[in-house]
């Protein structure tokens, strides 16, 4: 068994797309043939490779989602495959820092050679609302979600009585007229026509599918005639074409275009917005490499100039061609780049000369639905059924593994004889915001566990402990976990339920989005993160004070005869007392003179203004805050420890019988001469 953090791999390949997978396969084959097998680490964010050209057919219910993906471990049996996200590249150590998951946290991979094949990311932030409301078509999950979303809109519309709501539900807008946008439009219009007959209260005239494209014709990388043919065919099928327009903003119910056109819709599919991969973008700070519009510049052999260990291929690489242009970000280029990359790395490891990558595109194809496609093969243009047959034949041949080829052939054959599947399969994944229930004694997390959630106590109580010592007790309406998330570190305490407890948990990704969006909220969390001290931090604080002060009894420094109220007093009594004796906190006593909580002045007055609280109501109706309790004969060191660990500036002092006898303030301890 190998330890990824201890092993130094001969080559690390980052990325599980066409370029990364084919590079790993070719490299392993060549080194094995040369009798020099090497250690290869293939790191990918998913454990499968997606055959991107067939994703629209998954969305259109033509293909099963399982049939357009291949397990990377099956495709690359001679590689160590790790499912993880790379967050940092260390040039000096030749290592990658990986984010593995909630429980493993981060890991590190060390290497001698590195190939970057991470592709590109989607960035929708440039169009307000697009990120929050649009559906994507980047991976299998996106295609499955779009299919389920499309069918669910028909289900809702079938029950809708308001014609405006029905119209909005059945209006589908696709942004982008490239391959993905056009093929998705073709598949959705076919799916809509196929399933419409099953919905008795939905007329086809109620449905509207709109394709928005910023140029004057779709499929701009193909000949203009093919783009115009595609637009004509889609229009005949019922797709409304809006050209030379851009999306300006998106809401839950509308999309706004740059000419002030407004389309009411509950479904926007975005097929544009490619952006540089964050890891590649971070290399912009390194003087050893050069970026070209967010891509790593490499030579024609895909090696980074001046570095004998760094390579790149695929959508994240800027690879020059003989005519002075760079390789386009398409699947046919990525696959061949990967193969050549594997050959060149093998040559480098055997001290042989590398070869330049040279490839001229054979052609391009796009399926536009209803047994129709467009194609341009070696300058010859095809359209209609012949192009559709070529599209299916060529992509079937390119699909990795014989098993997947057979499965796809079966799906396509069945589609010719049977109706499309309209089962609404909408997998429910773990929510980003959810509730967690714990019984008394249950541990929520241990000190040192990777931090992946921010918690709010809904009911019950959670003790935060450090090396067995109580730090604080979190009760209803209190929160914790922000310190670890803000600092990107593991949890610094143990969290244990002391009674039946319900927590609201917010996952790290959502927490960070909120923090980035609201500066005031972020500042408040920064402050609260500093209130709970670890044992080391507490020791540092206490060492600043002389032992004679810390060892003195609390009674020597407490404020005697504190101002208080009883839980049977009225709200009017509290207001009167605060007017006569201004205090930031008022202890609340029960019938036995024992403190049961405190009223904080600011919170009380705000509550009085914003609720229907009556002046005659009892103090018992208020939610009381809790300050730490110490007895008169305990030392100031103990009081300081409780206050520091509870983020409190005061503590209530009680007699041995538990009755209130005074209040000790943190400021008095620190400023005492």
TrEMBL record:
<feature type="domain" description="CBS">
    <location>
        <begin position="558"/>
        <end position="615"/>
    </location>
</feature>
<keyword id="KW-0129">CBS domain</keyword>
<comment type="similarity">
    <text>Belongs to the NADH dehydrogenase family.</text>
</comment>
<keyword id="KW-0285">Flavoprotein</keyword>
<keyword id="KW-0560">Oxidoreductase</keyword>
<keyword id="KW-0809">Transit peptide</keyword>
<keyword id="KW-0274">FAD</keyword>
<dbReference type="Pfam" id="PF07992">
    <property type="entry name" value="Pyr_redox_2"/>
</dbReference>
<dbReference type="Pfam" id="PF00027">
    <property type="entry name" value="cNMP_binding"/>
</dbReference>
<dbReference type="InterPro" id="IPR014710">
    <property type="entry name" value="RmlC-like_jellyroll"/>
</dbReference>
<dbReference type="Pfam" id="PF22366">
    <property type="entry name" value="NDH2_C"/>
</dbReference>
<dbReference type="InterPro" id="IPR036188">
    <property type="entry name" value="FAD/NAD-bd_sf"/>
</dbReference>
<protein>
    <recommendedName>
        <fullName>NADH:ubiquinone reductase (non-electrogenic)</fullName>
        <ecNumber>1.6.5.9</ecNumber>
    </recommendedName>
</protein>
<dbReference type="Pfam" id="PF00571">
    <property type="entry name" value="CBS"/>
</dbReference>
<dbReference type="InterPro" id="IPR045024">
    <property type="entry name" value="NDH-2"/>
</dbReference>
<dbReference type="InterPro" id="IPR023753">
    <property type="entry name" value="FAD/NAD-binding_dom"/>
</dbReference>
<feature type="domain" description="Cyclic nucleotide-binding">
    <location>
        <begin position="437"/>
        <end position="515"/>
    </location>
</feature>
<keyword id="KW-0520">NAD</keyword>
<dbReference type="GO" id="GO:0050136">
    <property type="term" value="F:NADH dehydrogenase (quinone) (non-electrogenic) activity"/>
</dbReference>
<dbReference type="InterPro" id="IPR046342">
    <property type="entry name" value="CBS_dom_sf"/>
</dbReference>
<dbReference type="InterPro" id="IPR054585">
    <property type="entry name" value="NDH2-like_C"/>
</dbReference>
<dbReference type="InterPro" id="IPR018490">
    <property type="entry name" value="cNMP-bd_dom_sf"/>
</dbReference>
<dbReference type="InterPro" id="IPR000644">
    <property type="entry name" value="CBS_dom"/>
</dbReference>
<dbReference type="InterPro" id="IPR000595">
    <property type="entry name" value="cNMP-bd_dom"/>
</dbReference>
């Amino acid at each position: 068994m190998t330890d990824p953090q201890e092993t130094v791999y001969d080559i690390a390949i980052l990325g599980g797309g066409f370029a990364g997978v084919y590079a790993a396969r070719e490299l392993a084959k060549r080194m094995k043939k040369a009798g020099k097998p090497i250690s290869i680490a293939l790191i990918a964010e998913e454990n499968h490779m997606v055959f991107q050209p067939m994703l629209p057919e998954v969305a259109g219910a033509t293909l099963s989602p399982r049939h357009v993906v291949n397990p990377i471990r099956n495709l690359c049996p001679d590689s160590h495959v790790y499912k993880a996200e790379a967050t940092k590249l260390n040039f000096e150590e030749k290592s990658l820092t990986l984010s593995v998951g909630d429980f493993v946290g981060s890991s590190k991979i060390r290497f001698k050679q590195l190939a970057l094949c991470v592709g590109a990311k989607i960035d929708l932030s440039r169009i307000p609302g697009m990120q929050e409301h649009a559906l994507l078509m980047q991976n299998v999950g996106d295609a499955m979600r779009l299919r389920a979303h499309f069918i669910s809109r028909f289900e809702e519309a079938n029950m809708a009585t308001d014609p405006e709501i029905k119209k909005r539900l059945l209006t589908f807008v696709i942004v982008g007229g490239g391959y993905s946008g056009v093929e998705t439009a073709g598949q959705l219009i076919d799916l809509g026509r196929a399933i419409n007959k099953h919905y008795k209260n939905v007329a086809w005239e109620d449905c509207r599918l709109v394709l928005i494209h910023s140029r004057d014709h779709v499929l701009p990388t193909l000949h203009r005639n093919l783009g115009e043919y595609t637009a004509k065919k889609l229009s005949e099928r019922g797709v409304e074409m809006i050209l030379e327009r851009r999306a300006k903003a998106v809401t839950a119910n509308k999309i706004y275009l740059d000419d002030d056109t407004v389309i009411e819709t509950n479904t926007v599919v975005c097929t544009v917005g490619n952006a540089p991969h964050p890891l590649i973008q971070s290399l912009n700070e390194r003087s050893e490499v050069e970026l070209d519009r967010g891509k790593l510049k490499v030579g024609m052999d895909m090696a980074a100039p001046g570095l004998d260990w760094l390579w790149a291929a695929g959508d994240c690489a800027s690879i020059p061609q003989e005519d002075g242009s760079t390789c386009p970000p398409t699947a046919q280029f990525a696959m061949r780049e990967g193969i050549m990359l594997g050959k060149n790395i093998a040559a480098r490891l055997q001290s042989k000369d590398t070869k330049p990558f040279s490839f001229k595109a054979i052609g391009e194809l796009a399926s536009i639905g209803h047994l129709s496609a467009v194609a341009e093969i070696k300058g010859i243009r095809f359209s209609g059924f012949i192009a559709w047959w070529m599209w299916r034949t060529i992509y079937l041949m390119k699909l990795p593994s014989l098993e997947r080829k057979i499965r796809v052939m079966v799906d396509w054959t069945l589609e010719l004889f049977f109706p499309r599947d309209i089962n609404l399969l909408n997998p429910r994944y773990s929510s980003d915001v959810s509730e967690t229930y714990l019984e008394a004694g249950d541990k929520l997390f241990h000190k040192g566990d990777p931090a992946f959630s921010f918690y709010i106590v809904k009911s019950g109580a959670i003790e935060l402990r450090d090396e067995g010592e109580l730090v604080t007790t979190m009760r209803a309406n209190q929160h914790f976990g922000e310190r670890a998330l803000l600092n990107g570190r593991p949890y610094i305490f143990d969290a244990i339920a002391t009674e039946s407890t319900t927590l609201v948990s917010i996952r790290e990704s959502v927490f960070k989005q909120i923090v980035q969006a609201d500066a005031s909220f972020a500042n408040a969390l920064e402050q609260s993160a500093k209130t709970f001290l670890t044992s080391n931090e507490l020791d540092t604080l206490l060492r600043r004070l002389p032992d004679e002060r810390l060892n003195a009894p609390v009674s020597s420094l407490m404020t005697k005869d504190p101002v208080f109220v009883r839980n049977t007093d009225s709200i009017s009594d509290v207001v009167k007392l605060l007017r006569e004796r201004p205090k930031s906190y008022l202890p609340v006593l029960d019938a036995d003179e024992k403190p049961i909580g405190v009223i904080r002045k600011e919170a009380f007055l705000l509550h009085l203004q914003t609720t229907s609280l009556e002046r005659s109501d009892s103090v018992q109706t208020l939610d009381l805050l809790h300050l730490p309790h110490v007895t008169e004969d305990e030392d100031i060191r103990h009081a300081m420890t409780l206050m520091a660990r509870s983020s409190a500036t005061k503590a209530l002092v009680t007699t041995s019988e538990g009755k209130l006898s005074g209040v000790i303030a943190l400021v008095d301890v620190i400023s005492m001469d």
